[in-house]
Specification:
The N terminus is likely disordered. This protein folds into two domains: 96 residues, no CATH class; 249 residues, Ribonuclease H-like superfamily/Ribonuclease H (Nucleotidyltransferase, domain 5). Helix 1 packs across helix 2, helix 13 packs across helix 14 and helix 14 crosses helix 15. By secondary structure, the protein is an alpha/beta fold. It has 17 helices and eleven strands. It has a five-stranded mixed beta sheet, with helices on both faces. Strands 1-2 form a two-stranded antiparallel ribbon. The chain has a two-stranded antiparallel ribbon with strand order 3-4. GO terms for molecular function: exonuclease activity; nucleic acid binding. This is Exonuclease domain-containing protein. One of its GO terms (cellular component) is nucleus.
């Protein structure tokens, strides 16, 4: 019997703006949310819906045929001639289309019984493009900065790491001591939090799990890049999110700042005005920080473990309060400074760059084009994974850092004493006269007693 394969499917269309260039439902859904389209009614037939996914699935019948794709006869010889090379096999990997729904504004139940029972379909993986959300399995090295080679976990290792992450989440007292926003009443300033653009009254808790929504990710690593706006505040400009267990890239998007940018901080953020303008004009940039937060909530809930480095800054520009956090900066510092009472801030937090070198042997943040959010997200994720999988390496590093920190404290104490001695010596010096301060008269010096004595002796003789 001749081999058969289905013909390629047509592109999907957006029911909000009728844009027709989407290869996967997740990419179309992210575009729909980012643009702020209404999910309540179909533009063609005026039928009402309760969620985005049902509307998207319903709308496709107006743009693509509902009949099954035609089968193309393929001979065995042609199949061998057209067999993909090993380099192209990853490009043609297949993924199951996710059916994650927003936990805050979207409902899972659809009024259309056909659309509500539609099973996930398998679609070919499109090529990864900058700033376009594409869900795919293990990330190809070509899509990441050359300095990062993500740690690959087997299914058994994923289960073990997931269990360990749940026990490594920092207690609320530790998060509060390190400056995290964990509840609405923890900050005195009710308008603006620290240097973030998000007012405190717009912070929201990550939605809880819902029986009506699809299961969310168990662990996600995120990193944000910020730009400077008025009053030295920070605004979200780029968001990256990866599945911390599988290594899948979930989000890698520019985010349009909510206010006028005063400084792009390209050296650190990697974002320029021209890059943002092009992304906004093409519709590839996320509309604002609220939409970016909504995109993240489509993937996580309050039971998801969030991983990051100094994650409090990322959560502040997203306006999020999250209960389960593993911060690579806190995790490593706690190994150096064990504090069972959790009474204050850590004595020292090590930078992501130094931790990546120590635990991964990777040199990150070395380019002239600024930090890469995806690179930082993978680095923080891999550092946490290494700390869990290799506790002996963590303890050995912690011992070295304790010795180094003692040397630093001794050096600081010596420097403090030197400054105190110099200050005391300066206080003992006689105050100069007014004329001396103005420089109109030469500075008076103490007489040399030996010279004076000899002069007196010569005068007497």
């Amino acid at each position: 019997m001749p081999n058969q394969k289905p013909a390629s499917a047509k592109l999907l269309s957006c029911p909000g703006c009728e844009k027709k260039n989407f290869q996967t439902i997740p990419a179309l859904r992210m575009h729909f949310i980012a643009k702020g389209h209404s999910a309540s009614r179909c533009r063609k037939c005026q039928k009402t819906f309760n969620d985005v996914l049902s509307l998207i699935q319903h709308y496709q019948k107006y743009t693509i045929s509902t009949d099954p794709p035609a089968l193309v006869q393929v001979s065995a010889k042609a199949k061998l001639d057209n067999a993909p090379s090993p380099a192209r096999k990853q490009e043609k990997a297949e993924v199951v289309v996710a059916t994650a729904h927003s936990a805050e504004t979207l409902k899972e139940v659809s009024k259309d019984p056909k659309s509500s029972t539609t099973r996930p379909s398998r679609v070919p993986l499109p090529a990864v493009e900058d700033y376009v959300v594409v869900e795919h399995p293990v990330v190809e090295a070509a899509t990441l900065p050359s300095s990062i080679l993500p740690i690959s976990l087997t299914p058994e290792e994923q289960e073990a790491v997931s269990r360990s992450l749940s026990t490594r989440c920092h207690p609320p007292k530790r998060l509060l001591a390190e400056g995290y926003i964990i509840e609405g009443g923890t900050v005195k300033n009710k308008e603006f939090v620290c240097n973030s653009c998000v007012p405190l009254n717009q912070f929201r808790d990550t939605p809880r799990p819902s029986e009506q929504s699809a299961p969310k990710r168990r662990a996600v690593a995120i990193d944000c890049e910020m730009v400077e706006i008025a009053n030295h505040r920070q605004a979200l400009a780029f968001l990256s999110a990866i599945d911390a267990l599988t290594g899948e890239v979930l989000i890698s998007r520019l985010v349009q700042p909510s206010e006028r940018v005063l400084h792009w901080r390209t050296r650190h953020s990697g974002v320029t005005a021209s890059l943002m303008s092009k992304a906004v004009a093409s519709g590839e940039a996320v509309k604002n920080w609220k939409t970016a937060r909504q995109m993240l909530w489509a993937l996580v809930d309050s039971e998801t473990v969030l991983i990051g480095h100094s994650l409090k800054h990322d959560l502040q520009v997203l306006g999020m309060r999250h209960p389960k956090i593993v911060d690579s900066a806190i995790l490593t510092a706690e190994a150096v400074f064990p504090d069972p009472l959790v009474t204050g801030t850590m004595t020292r937090l090590w930078s992501l760059k130094k931790l990546a070198k120590a635990f991964l042997g990777a040199d990150i943040q070395v380019g002239k084009n600024g930090h890469a959010a995806l690179e930082d997200a993978f680095a923080s994720r891999d550092i946490v994974v290494q700390c869990i999988r290799r506790p002996a390496q963590l303890e050995e590093w912690a011992k070295r850092m304790r010795v180094e920190e003692k040397d630093r404290q001794i050096a600081r104490e010596i420097q403090r004493k030197l400054k105190a001695a110099q200050k005391l010596e300066g206080d003992k010096k006689p105050e100069l006269g007014r004329a001396d301060r103005k420089g109109t008269r030469r500075k008076q010096t103490k007489p040399n007693l030996k010279v004076v004595g000899r002069a007196k002796g010569l005068a007497q003789t």
